[in-house]
Amino acid sequence: MEKHFCTCSDTTCPFNPNNERCREKTCDACIKKCLKAHEIPSCFFKDIHPDISGNKDFSYAGFAEFLKNHPAGRK
Length: 75
Hints:
It contains 3 helices and no strands. It is mainly α. It starts with 27 loop residues before the first helix and ends in a 6-residue tail after the last helix.
């Protein structure tokens, strides 16, 4: 089976389409989980800056702060 495109490095997450136990091989479950928790998926953070290792706040406010701290973004 072809590996699904996903920038999330947490392959232990049951919603990661590259986790072998994930039933859906789409990002739908991750997005639904994030919307319910009022969070932004990690792929949006990684589009701003590839290193999100120090980030623990994936809330909307956390994303705004992350964007403020990485104003140039990724080119």
